[in-house]
Design goal:
- By secondary structure, the protein is α+β, with helices and mostly antiparallel strands.
- It is built from four helices and four strands; from the N terminus they run H-E-E-H-H-E-E-H.
Length: 144
């Protein structure tokens, strides 16, 4: 008899923790951002754009989250794969919903399973990645 373990999906409470932690990290760095949290199905769980964040950051945060979710990888790790000589070069325009290969998107896992993704946009790519990382680490810490 096989046993299957169920993994708790990403909740709205989890999404709020991710959003607030990423925004707090950005605020401490003096950066205005947009933050998007998606569930495992790619559905929006939480979104917030700071009042002074550039408008496009709302779109980039969502695309980064979607890309991290679809490829189950940090977007920072994928940047070189879409360069003209990279193996994913055509992937940026191949799908109905475009992917965005800029640092700031992270998949979110629970018990080794993909349960959603987080995207941060508005700062420099390395900053966005750092804000997203702080948020995912906070969620992991709360689980333990």
């Amino acid at each position: 008899m096989s046993t299957t373990s169920t993994v708790t999906p990403l909740t709205t409470q989890d999404a709020e923790l991710l959003l607030s932690t990423a925004r707090r990290a950005a605020e401490e760095a003096g950066v205005t951002v947009s933050v998007t949290v998606l569930d495992a199905g790619g559905h929006l769980l939480a979104f917030r754009r700071d009042d002074r964040a550039v408008l496009i950051s709302g779109e980039t945060s969502t695309r980064k989250a979607y890309t991290a979710l679809q490829l189950n990888a940090p977007t920072a790790d994928l940047v070189d794969l879409v360069k003209p000589d990279g193996p994913f070069h055509s992937l940026t325009t191949a799908l109905d919903r475009p992917l965005l290969f800029i640092a700031g998107g992270l998949p979110v896992h629970r018990d080794g399973r993909l349960i959603g993704a987080l995207g941060v946009g508005g700062g420099a790519p390395e900053q966005d990645h750092g804000f997203a990382t702080a948020a995912v680490e906070a969620l992991d810490a709360e689980a333990h």
